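User: Hand in any protein.

Assistant:
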Amino acid sequence: MAGHRSPTGRACPPVPGRDRGAHRAPSDGHRRVQVVATAATLGAVAAGTVTAFTSGAPAAADPAPAVAEVGPSPMLAASAGVLRPAQRLRALAAPMQPVAYSTDDEITDERVASVAKASRLAEQLAALHAQQARTQAVIRAGGLDGWIAEALQVMNLPQTLAPGVKKIIMAESGGNPRAINTWDSNAVRGTPSRGLMQTIPSTFRSYVHPHVADRPITDPVANITAGVRYMIDRYGMDTVAAGGRNNGYGGYLGY
């Protein structure tokens, strides 16, 4: 092969062990082989295998249990590690089978009765709450009905007694909490009846409810508690519910 010429025109002696072939760029065929080999290697790494290439022979693949055997490249190792959770995701994506539940319990008469009892208790509780709400509304409104409702609540007596108590009050005092009887036998003795229920001082002190015992005899709520408790003790609850005692002609009798 011809040697290189120097700028002076003299031929330079060839360098031993070196020729023009050493400076020749790789041919396209050689470049394609490198690209194919590199791609195959990357594919093998991604699949978890190591591929070896030999001239004139097809590539052979051997399974590699660990990505670390491929090489020191952290990028390739990370790529291989991403595929393993994907395999678990494919397993989770399998069709879900419905779970059937069964029970051996039989519906018995006892269970039916228990459910019915619970339903009745719930209805009673709801009715009680509604009644309490109505009572509070009456108390807030004030007046004679409010005083009666509050007195029955203090005594823990049913509000169903309210009509009978009101009838007694209207017969005794006309609904005036400051009413004073000046003509009966009690007045003659110097202890006139006072308040809504027209109680004398000794009766008031003995029968007023403890929760309102610090109030005066003319206090509407305290006076009602004293008169009602005296009537229950003397004549019974039915007499209070009936609105007091009556004579043979249906007229009201004082207590």
In short: The radius of gyration is 55 Å.
